[in-house]
Amino acid sequence: MGPAARLGRAVPFARVSPWLLPLTCVLLKTLPAARAADAPKPNILLIMADDLGIGDLGCYGNRTLRTPNIDRLAKEGVRLTQHLAAAPLCTPSRAAFLTGRHSFRSGMDASNGYRALQWNAGSGGLPQNETTFARLLREQGYATGIIGKWHQGLNCARRDDHCHHPLRHGFDYFYGMPFTLVNDCHPARPPEVDARFRAQLWLYTQAVALAMFSLAASRASGLLPVPWTLVAAAAGLGLLFFVSWYSSFGFVRRWNCIVMRDHQVTEQPMDLDGAAGRMLREAVSFIDRNQQRPFLLFLSLLHVHIPLPTMPAFRGRSQHGLYGDNVEEMDWLVGEAVRALDERGLRNRTLVYFTSDHGGHLEAQGEGGQLGGWNGIYRGGKGMGGWEGGIRVPGIFRWPGVLPAGRVVSAPTSLMDVLPTAVQLAGGHLPQDRVIDGRSLVPLLQGAVTHSAHEFLFHYCGQHLHAARWHERDSGKLWKVHYVTPRFHPDGAGACYGRGVCPCSGDGVRHHSPPLLFELISDPAEAQPLTAATEPRFLSVVARLARAVAEHRRTASPGPPQFSPSNIIWKPWLQPCCGTFPFCSCREDTEPREGPSTQLHP
């Protein structure tokens, strides 16, 4: 009988082997993590909100929005208080989440200019040689699906090659938006994608059209001897400008706001009013089809990104306008998805995870005022480099019978940790041919350890390292340095001087030498930077973090740039289309597919 089997027997003290007591302590400490790893393969439901502020949920301190379903997940599971996005913007954050790697490693971040994919008809996207958690779990026999937002690219050379499509990255099933919600998806909202450039182009189009009309009128009246060739040239130029505006930008809603099922475009442009109901039906249908085998479902919510499409049943219900209404609708949708699991007897067989891709969007404004989220006490927001408000996100795990209910973990963790966590629970192995930045959360979630596997974490804005944190094991202090910070108004409105999102470099940022230093346990709001005069260890802490950054940089080998100008621009030959290009149009039957009947109203 081995030592582990003897743990439950009374052993006379005098006969205890000198190595048995220390070994017993080790075994007792690791037993919970071993139970999680040895349990039957769980189903995994990953739910990610879009642009949700960490302060928008009741379980993270909000007292004016109603989020009972997400709060119940936290009560029944483990809540992470220092869960961090690898990037403060959609596309790079999600690339890091899917791969467990910083987005610069896959080329899914920018050195300047655009920081997220802008078009369905661009050629940039998550490279096929990247390995997602879906691919690794499918190798372990999982059915894999993604429902909702993708925003990791679509095509490379032809409109149907789908080289960046979810089904090329390990997912068996896809239903949702290959792009993301933007204001352009709503006919009554102001433009968002390349809004300033589009406004300038339309102004130039009008000026050329006016000049063309004036030349033609002068020629016809005989007032000026204008050559017909000049009139023809002006007309051609005006037509060129008009066509470029009309085809590239006048159709943004029709070309970017589409829905696909697997490889087929099913809705173009998408119907915003029914989007939440269709996503929920698809999620429940996927669960129903795969409940007899282990499955991974990534429910990538369209909530709570502008333009905040919200069902009539939720409009006007919250104290915070349209944004609050959308948050409460999101909570209802999460509750319905979890209820579908529980009603099918999958409650104790499913790990449920809820998070957001980054913090709330401070610049989001509308007729009703602020349309972005609340980041609680944390400074900054979406796109704002390493400030906590842009990268600290909800992190909730529920797995009844395996994870302790009501546990709170304050150690630093990352969205990149989800990949190694899922792979461990599925019985798989991490790739050995690349750097994986994430670490398994199983021991931390179970309570086998109290300290994060991340001693250091690094915070990027585009491909620029803006900040780093150090969780000091001996003292428990949590140090954070900022080398670069964006110039923004902390009051929220117009946070980055009229820009859509703060820049990562150039005149829109400040460089700090010496860096700003904060101790986040005592100052989580990053309100009072420490100095050599106020912190005796200032120089040694800054030096230790500098060494960690240098070691980290030695592992940095950026992938081919997916946000280069040639990859980011709109290309008509890559535009997904149902019907006749450029007048693409189709509508899908919105009746529920085969499977369960889902209540679509609260």
Describe this structure in words.
This protein has helices spanning 20-38, 68-76, 90-99, 133-138, 195-221, 228-248, 252-256, 275-290, 321-343, 388-391, 418-426, 442-446, 538-553, 565-568, and strands at residues 43-49, 78-84, 143-149, 173-177, 259-261, 264-267, 295-300, 350-356, 365-366, 369-370, 392-398, 407-409, 413-414, 456-461, 464-471, 478-486, 509-519, 579-580, 583-584. The chain has 602 residues and is α/β, with parallel strands linked by helices. Strands 1, 2, 3, 4, 5, 6, 7, 8, 11, 12 and 13 form an 11-stranded mixed β-sheet that branches. Strand 14 and strand 15 form a beta hairpin. Helix 5 (195-221) packs antiparallel against helix 6 (228-248) and helix 8 packs parallel to helix 9 (321-343). The radius of gyration is 26 Å and the shape is globular. The model is unreliable at 1-34 and 592-598 (pLDDT under 50).
Task: Write a concise keyword list for the protein shown above.
602 residues; alpha/beta; 29% helix; 19 strands; 14 helices; Alkaline Phosphatase, subunit A; 11-stranded mixed beta sheet; 17% strand
